[in-house]
Amino acid sequence: EAMAHHATAAVVSSDELNPASDNDACCGQLPTGLVHFASSEHVSKSGKHIERPERVESIMQRLQTEGLAARCSHVSCREATAAELGATHATETHVEVMQSVGQLETQADVDMVASGYESVYMTQRSPSCARTATGAVLELTRGVLEGTLLNGIAVVRPPGHHAEADQCCGFCIFNNVAVAATQAKAQFGLSRILIVDWDVHHGNGTQHLFEEDPSVLYFSVHRYDNGDFFPGSKDAAPQVVGCGAGQGFNVNVAWNLAWRDNVGMGDDEYLAAWHLVLLPVALEFNPELILVSAGFDSAAGDVGGCSVTPRGFAQMTRMLQAVNPKVVLVLEGGYELAVIAECTCACVRTLLGDPLDLLTEVRPKKEARLSLERTLRAHRPFWAALASVESTSSVSTAQVIMLDVVGIRQATPAEGVGEERMHQQSSSSKEQSSNSNIQPKIAKARRKKVDRAVTGVSISTRNAAESNWKGDAKKLARRERDLGAMLARIEALKRELEVGKRMSRKECASLEEEDELRWELQEVQAELAELTSLSRDDAIRMYTGCR
């Protein structure tokens, strides 16, 4: 009966969403843990790099200025041991290799090691810094599991979610969150851990480390762009659900941004993912611990091309607290100092139990609705909470998703929403925080003028941009024709099936792909229409990034 209840609606009471804030441990509430490590010896030797110590320093300065650091219980750092790292990473081919970096004599030797990995820099002290970042997360998680902390946040670097079992990758050396999950199982006997990754980049390392493990539910919401966005792997697709016993325990919400989308996915889209996918699955999974790869490069004004606000991150955190209060946030990406500082403050206030101004309805854009429907379609066979969703409530056609606490998975067409279903906050659901220094950047992007001639671009660059524009249009047109042909073949197969013809295994597989092909056709047609509507100057602006 409880499972059926979850299937129809992920119900969370208003008290759970906005608990009364005791603010401090002295008022009877366990404290929120805070651990930080700036890794000042882990810096690029080849010039200024976006992944730098100032990321942690700016966050900590803001936490102190806002009085939030003083309200937290500070946790000491330590280096993770070789045994702790080796339980997650390959000992000989990764842990020991990183240990040997500290013994190298010159930076050139270190650079040679780093060049063997994707998007990684190192100094002789980098592996030690990475071990300390991981150890800091372990100590914070230990405090939460031992009951001395209610929840916590680790403001540490280098980040970790791209690190594979035997590979550094994407600024990451050791996978901080994955090591914490492995040790939580080994030392505390946990059998259900939820890892939520809201970094704008897919956590390829975390996914691969747990893709066969049903005791770890990995949920990632990330920019995908049909596999072109870093780390550039089809493993980030919504159809990748895990392997073997881990099938269904790997959940990817993969955003495909439309052409010339200057804003990307924001609060509406991310909260829709929380309420339609993450929350119902998490309630059914019933985790004993929630670890969050908290990358703020999906924030408005950061590098990821998305527009989640501090308010959005706060509400996502509060939703997770409603599933289980044992929530540990771990910094991953996020590179604009003012942006990540503000977003972190919003999350810390949430962990401390401060009241929030919750959004109660969202209007996710079409591209997001298609992405969400793909994820739901991939995971309905594995989760009762998703399998019972009515076809008439198709996410891909819903215009408004109500986030009320009575039925937060309810979706209705825009014209069907009555005034009696609106909450007091709905009038402000599209407004952004007035004290945010992020929103003006979005507003400027929307006001860009594109009707003037392009200047300051060489003829060769113009020609290359125009060639790429026309080439992409031709590729999309070919793909449109191919998809149309495949769908026509499927229609023919359906007619043959109706008259009793037996289908081969390959033909049956083709029939099962119909919905996916139709969604892809919609996306291709939308992209092609936008490309072909561009003037030559508009296309040059798009492909060169000039104004």
How far apart are the first and last residues' alpha carbons, in Å?
A: 58 Å
Overall mean pLDDT? 85
Strands in their spatial order, largest beta sheet: 2-1-3-8-7-4-5-6
Largest sheet: 8 strands, parallel
Round the Cα radius of gyration to an integer and report it.
Answer: 24 Å
Which sequence of SSEs, written as H and E, runs from N to C?
A: HHEHEHHHHEHEHEEHEHEHEHHEEHHHHH
How big a fraction of the residues is strand?
A: 5-15%
Low-pLDDT stretches: 1-11, 20-26, 405-451
The total count of helices amounts to 19
Global geometry: globular
Task: Specify the helix fraction band.
Answer: 40-55%
Estimated structural class: alpha/beta
- Number of extended strands: 11
Description of the structure:
By secondary structure, this protein is an alpha/beta fold. It is 44% helix and 10% strand. The protein has 19 helices and 11 strands. The chain has helices spanning 2-8, 14-17, 54-65, 82-86, 91-101, 107-114, 126-146, 176-188, 204-210, 267-285, 310-323, 337-351, 366-379, 384-387, 439-446, 459-498, 505-512, 514-532, 536-544, and strands at residues 32-37, 73-74, 151-156, 193-197, 216-223, 250-255, 289-294, 327-331, 361-362, 400-402, 410-412. It has an 8-stranded parallel sheet, with helices on both faces. A hairpin with a 7-residue loop joins strand 10 and strand 11. Helix 10 runs parallel beside helix 11, helix 10 packs parallel to helix 13 and helix 11 packs parallel to helix 12. It is globular and about 70 Å long. The chain starts with a helix and ends with a helix. Mean pLDDT is 85; it is low at 1-11, 20-26 and 405-451.
